[in-house]
Amino acid sequence: MRRILLSVPRIATVSAALLLLLVAVGANAAADMPDAALVQRGEYLAKAGDCVACHTAPKGQTFAGGLLLPTPLGPIVATNITPSKTHGIGNYSLAQFSDALRRGVRADGAHLYPAMPYTSYSKVTDDDTAALYAYFMQVVKPVDTSPPPTALPFPFNVRASMIVWNALFLDTKPFQSDPKQSAEWNRGAYLVNGLAHCSTCHTPRNLLMAEDGARALGGGDVGVWHAPNITSDANSGVGGWSVTELVGYLRDGHAAGKSQAAGPMAEAIDASLRHLDESDLRAMATYLHSVPPLRDAADTRPVFSWGAAGDDLASIRGVALPKDLNEMTGPQLFDAHCATCHQAQGQGSFDGGLPSLFNNTALGRVNTNNLVMVMLEGLHRHPDILMPGFAKDLSDRQIATLGSYLTQRYGNPNAQVTAGQVAMLRSGGASSNLVLLARAAMVAAVLLIVVVIGLWARRRRRVQA
Amino acid sequence: MSTSHSASVDNLVAPNPVRRGVLAGLLGAYAASLIPWALAQPVADSDQGAFLAVSAILVGRSALDAAATKRLYDALLANDASFSASTRTLLNLINERKIDPLQLQQLLDDEKSPLAAIPRVIVSAWLLGIVGSGERARCLAFETALNAVMVADVLKPPTYAYGTYGSWAGKPG
Amino acid sequence: MADTLSADFVVIGSGIIGSLTARKLALAGASVLILEAGPRVTRGELVARFRNSPRRSDWMSPYPPAAWAPHPVYQPKDNGYLVQAGPYPYPAEYIRQVGGTTWHWAAHAWRNVPNDFKIRSLYGVGVDWPITYEDLEPFYQEAEEIMGVSGAPNTGSPRTKPFPMQPVTEPYAMRRIRERLEPAYPVVSNTTARNSRSYDGRPACCGNNSCQPICPIDAQYHGGLSADAAVAAGARLIPDANVYQLEHDAQGRVTAALYYDPDKASHRVTGKTFIVAANGIESPRLLLLSTSDKFPQGLANSRDMVGRHLMDHPSTSLTFDAEEALWLGRGPQSPSSINTMRDGAFRSEHAPYRLDFTNISRVDGTSKSLVAAGVYGPELEKRLRHSVAHELNVKNVLEVLPLPEHRIALSDQKDAMGIPKPQAHYSIDDYTRRGHERSQADFKRIAELMGGTNLRFSKDGDFANNQHICGTLSMGKDPATSVCDGWGRAHDHENLFLASTGVLPTSATCNSTLNGLAVALRTAQHILSAQTSTPTPAATSAPGR
After folding, report:
1. CATH code assigned at C352
2. Is any Cβ of chain A less than 8 angstroms from the Cβ of B132?
3. Residue B12: pLDDT above 60?
4. Residue A18: pLDDT band with limits 50, 70, 90
5. Cβ within 8 Å, pair A335-C216
6. Do A289 and A232 form a contact (C-beta atoms < 8 A)?
7. Given this structure, which CATH class describes domain A313-426?
8. How many CB pairs below 8 Å do chains A and C form together?
């Protein structure tokens, strides 16, 4: 019997080598994954992250950029993230891709504006980042065109200012599983807070345009649309929704007796959420049910529980329309434009495909911006027009009359619509003072510095004198 | 309606004045047998009560909406000042001669009764929601007219969407 | 006279044909002015009017005529606007408002079959068209793509490109009819300008079952959309402009259109080219009104052909109760047809016809019948539900031959604007009657196959009208027997074109709108090619979306 003599140094060397090998294998686990599977995972994750929502312009080439994101500071132009070597990210290394995705820093060192939700994507794991990288580099078709660069007004065109902003608001800690929670919950937390970046819209922002963590998922505004409260609160949020209902909503864009997705959420479902696995949607729903409840005082009952079937037909049958159609009453407007699909008592069609107006969050929220937006633009799920828009058919006043009638009759009677609100939304939203404020603040700061320097200089002269 | 008659009927039905209404007194035994549910229907006065009773007998329904009753009654009376008197006379006729609703029109036409137009006027109002004729015709109900209600489990009234695209392919009912 | 407006092209009439002709010219960069006699009306108003109407089966009740642009109405009283000279009444209905009559139609959008263009050569009846099916084919396609036409294959009209959309989903009732009539009768889904998917920013059909008189959701194409499209393309549309005369110069070129506004103030509009697109009755009326010393019989009328060869599609029908509960009223109003009698050797003997199955809800009609019959008590609901569930109706759509004595002329009676009213001379001739008689065998067999009882044939000698006004401005090679040439240009006037179902020289068996529209688009293409001195292309590209 021969004994293999291993000295301690030898054991140490071999162990170290083995350890290094293991670490190397671990680190390159993603890279060692058969390419096809990695790329496929990357494609799935790109859907979860909804990259096309910003990086593909309407009728534009996939991921070639060009979409203008309206912000209170001015439009931000989404860039070309195809692997074009001349106009896209074709020369990016994995590290550079990761920095852009998770730190908001471009390969040339410039900072991205947080319109790119890197504050959410910072949660994405290394493995998932590598999968995304593989997908973008190997599968996405390179497009050799550049959209125009973003040009925000001074001082916001100074990208370096993002360094300070990031220091204040960017949490670079990667996602940490909570061992006290189930695997499903953790998966949901990872998706909701990471790639699905729900907080980007659904969390309100402070004056510096950063998410207000204290009100996580408590509702935010995205231009003219309102992304509602999706905390676990039973009245204001989704606490009263079953997991099945939530999953159905995320997958199909509607839940009977609850709600239907419109505007940017409809787009998110079209491009992203409906492609996710059932298990991932369940995980997200499970997580949402645990988000600390935030209640808006105005929601004295669940926002989906308002209203009942009914009509005011007796006030309009046998009555001629007024000569000036702007004088049409709520019931007359409802009859001429809404009852056709939503039916005479607001109850919706036999098959439920044309939804009921009562027991519908569309009329249950005190914030009626989404109601107005749907009345103006309709509701689309590509390529179908599920509800046409009435922007061309109805004046601001008619929409106000009709909207307020709808909430009285079929929804939350405390909610109302005003003509001024309609005009504002129709024109693209409230104008922002942010640029003016920022410039005024800078001027004030400069003046303050000048005054301080002046005072100090005078004091020095006095001292010297 | 004689006091003694209503007094005797009063003893048979619940003494709640709101629920008792006036119909109990108007309906003789035959008419009541046609529309037994109506005994408990509250009505504002005996004219509307007679109208409700005749309407119920003619359209064969087991309930008639109170607000619609008033609305149609007011419109019919506005068109024809003698309408309430004619309706009462018709009710009494039906009751006294125990006329089967299906035979009523033939009988009135054969006898060239001055009441011959009344049943059609009443049924048009309830079934089609239309009051008046020719250039004076008015629509008072469409979706809530009985002809829409009677088929509402299968059909929507014209101009109302049946449902999403293709939903009409399946077998109805 | 007040102001003088001017444009390269003056189009009189903003219906589907006038508006889409104007649109095509405007898209090519021309200045276009559309003069519409009637007012603007919105879809919401029309829906409200229908629901408040005491005469819901009267499809004209949401469209009361404007005092300054009257059109015929017959209920509750005949307004006497279209004077009937007989011997057979011609109670045509049309709408004088922005968008015209297709605000209320069933949206049938069939093409003629190729033989429809040469019934004289083939069958010895009627006239041959001055153009062929092949000449028109690309313009059929163009019209179908603009409107959004959905259709089934094997319609008998050959195609070089597919339909823009699949046929609209077959209602249950129609499926059962199709299944029970096989193999004796092939029942096909109708070719219609109705969306079977979202198209051109408009939703798919939702089965509102009110195509006539109004589609509440614009799933069905209509002239209101055409008028909007013409304006979006750069045409200028003036409503409430009742054109009562066209003026000309010494060479017979049309120089101006005169119109009344609602206050009867006169306005003058000048232009280089004039296109009359004011439907098959108002167009010949305008030409006949435009008399002068040089043209005492009116414009385009040196051979007394204007208004002659009036044709429409008469119908007779059978109503019966089917064995099964089918419940008409679910889905669009007119989903299915039998096309086997649209063409064949028999056309030398009797009129061809299309057989049309209605899907219009029976509720209103049945209610009225029950009231009229004095059905009261619990029986009322029972019988209403039974009839509504079981009643079916099949009708024929018969061809009418072009006869010169059938015509639109001017009456000596004047309308509210002091303009001579149109007058109809019409009858149903033996050729058409023999077609009706032949169709009775089909009616009976269809009822039999459906297990039908309670058969009610339409009254003998009564022919319902379908509002497909043809022939009054017939196109043809011979000026002695036609008003305009194969390009729609009036024989007598170089700069006067006619765009209307009135130019169709035979009526065939399908609704006239698509045929009239395709002819008009070809006319517009010809006008544009003449401007650039290029020959009219055989194929046109579909309009961009």
Report:
1. 3.50.50.60
2. no
3. no
4. low
5. no
6. yes
7. mainly alpha
8. 52
